[in-house]
Amino acid sequence: MRITILLVLLYFLSFTGCKQNQLHLNKIEGKRIEVNNSITENAEIEAYIKPFREHIQNDLDSIIAYAPQTYTKSDGEFNTAIGNFMADAVYQEANPIFNKRTGHDIDMVLLNHGGIRSILSKGNISKRTAFELMPFENSIVVVALKKAQIDSMLLYLSKSKKAHPISQLKLTLNRNFEIVDAKIKNEAITNRTYYVATNDYLYNGGDNMRFFKTNDSLYILNYKIRNALIDNFLKNDTIQPSQDDRFTQIK
Amino acid sequence: MKRRDFLQHTAASTTLIGLGGLGLTSFTSEKKATKITILHTNDVHSHIDAFGPEDGRNANKGGVARRATLIDNYRKENPNTLLLDAGDIFQGTPYFNYYGGELEFKLMSKLKYDASTIGNHDFDNGIDGLYAQLPHANFDFICANYDFKNTVIDTHVKPYEVFVKDGIKIGVFGLGIELDGLVAPNMFKETKYLDPVEIAQDMTRTLKENEHCDLVICLSHLGYHYKNNSSKISDLKLAAATKNIDLIIGGHTHTFLPKPTVAKNIDGKNVLVNQVGCYGLYLGKIDFYFDTDKNKSANGTSILV
């Protein structure tokens, strides 16, 4: 009986009572607010960040090398000074580690053009420079590839029309973007296993580099690309990046 | 949830019986006009410090300490404010490389973020790296289309959350981008990506019909729009394929919208889609004004952007 009364009231409330009291979305206003230097910093937040910032700055800003010019990844069609420098640095720093662990040598290096994340400015080079060039945590891996995979890698490079950084590989295209010459360490490519150094992002198919996935074996060096750059900067008082003939097109 | 509604109605009825002759008029004062403010960021990418005056593109812009001041001021202006982030909190400055996201989460907690969804770069130290930083985050992680069941962060991410501000129920659900091809599989491990449109349809049904939300917000890391890949799901496609979403707060594509886009949903109703670029250069602000029946505007909801 009591429940019946409640249900009647409930019915009454939901169909008449509440209807008069509904809130309606009447108006929406949207805008964006620029965060700029007209806004005072919150002092408490600023004080909280400060010790973190100082620790990083002290570590990052010590000068470790010198760049005689400014280099960018758009300074060349198929190879750039900055890309050549990075790929060569990976080869120079990673090969001794790989050789010590496996007894083999790295045959060539392939990175990706998009992986050059900033310009390299003329002047002093610090650890910060390496962080700007390579902000990501990607590490060097060495992949053992058969000739068939090397061929599909070369085909990828010939079609990509980008200056993907390479080292120890020489690739020449004709005007139709067909391969007319390809050499690894100055030798014709034969039917053997090649040890190709790259980073874990590309190994996992980043930038559609699918040829790495059919491989004989994978060697994880636990060595970040950025740390290889830092180690290379530390060995060079003045770096000498240069564009050369490692990847060209005959027009 | 139906049961809870019944109990609430029952309680109200009992009161009415007690009040006798006062009748239904006493009920009218329960809801009053109010304003809900949604503040939002996306793709901050570890940009804790402001850009310096020498920066070529973003000179003197951004900075968490300035954002904190802005947010404080807006909260003073309207305490009924939600602060949301659409993902890619991590990666982009040495703060992330040195501290793994700890400072980003600690600062967002200090700024009293209410919720964030998860972007692809939030997996950059692996799902284990994200899990390790969760204790520093005093806000909710919301994502409905990643199935984390077989991962360490299972139970730490909710599909949706309902916030109540001044009696207004605001349902927020999250959507993440497909990780395959974007994040290395050894990083996201057994995280399963589920279809965003299907999940959004489920979520809006839950939030409207079960939770009776007054506002439904989608925190998306799908990306605003892909003009070279028309089949790829994006915020604009999501808006058109769903209903009952009031606002999609987007990320991923670093799209600097000067003002929110007014899109049409599957029922022909308006959906706001907004995204404020990246690096904390801008803060998005959307105000929702609720009014009683009496003051209801003749044309439904007016949108001023």
From TrEMBL, chain A:
<dbReference type="InterPro" id="IPR006179">
    <property type="entry name" value="5_nucleotidase/apyrase"/>
</dbReference>
<dbReference type="InterPro" id="IPR036907">
    <property type="entry name" value="5'-Nucleotdase_C_sf"/>
</dbReference>
<feature type="domain" description="5'-Nucleotidase C-terminal">
    <location>
        <begin position="79"/>
        <end position="213"/>
    </location>
</feature>
<dbReference type="InterPro" id="IPR008334">
    <property type="entry name" value="5'-Nucleotdase_C"/>
</dbReference>
<protein>
    <submittedName>
        <fullName>5'-nucleotidase</fullName>
    </submittedName>
</protein>
<dbReference type="Pfam" id="PF02872">
    <property type="entry name" value="5_nucleotid_C"/>
</dbReference>
<dbReference type="GO" id="GO:0016787">
    <property type="term" value="F:hydrolase activity"/>
</dbReference>
<dbReference type="GO" id="GO:0009166">
    <property type="term" value="P:nucleotide catabolic process"/>
</dbReference>
UniProtKB/TrEMBL annotation, chain B:
<keyword id="KW-0547">Nucleotide-binding</keyword>
<dbReference type="GO" id="GO:0000166">
    <property type="term" value="F:nucleotide binding"/>
</dbReference>
<dbReference type="Pfam" id="PF00149">
    <property type="entry name" value="Metallophos"/>
</dbReference>
<protein>
    <submittedName>
        <fullName>5'-nucleotidase</fullName>
    </submittedName>
</protein>
<dbReference type="GO" id="GO:0009166">
    <property type="term" value="P:nucleotide catabolic process"/>
</dbReference>
<feature type="domain" description="Calcineurin-like phosphoesterase">
    <location>
        <begin position="37"/>
        <end position="255"/>
    </location>
</feature>
<dbReference type="InterPro" id="IPR006179">
    <property type="entry name" value="5_nucleotidase/apyrase"/>
</dbReference>
<dbReference type="GO" id="GO:0016788">
    <property type="term" value="F:hydrolase activity, acting on ester bonds"/>
</dbReference>
<keyword id="KW-0378">Hydrolase</keyword>
<dbReference type="InterPro" id="IPR006146">
    <property type="entry name" value="5'-Nucleotdase_CS"/>
</dbReference>
<dbReference type="InterPro" id="IPR004843">
    <property type="entry name" value="Calcineurin-like_PHP"/>
</dbReference>
<dbReference type="InterPro" id="IPR029052">
    <property type="entry name" value="Metallo-depent_PP-like"/>
</dbReference>
<comment type="similarity">
    <text>Belongs to the 5'-nucleotidase family.</text>
</comment>
<dbReference type="GO" id="GO:0046872">
    <property type="term" value="F:metal ion binding"/>
</dbReference>
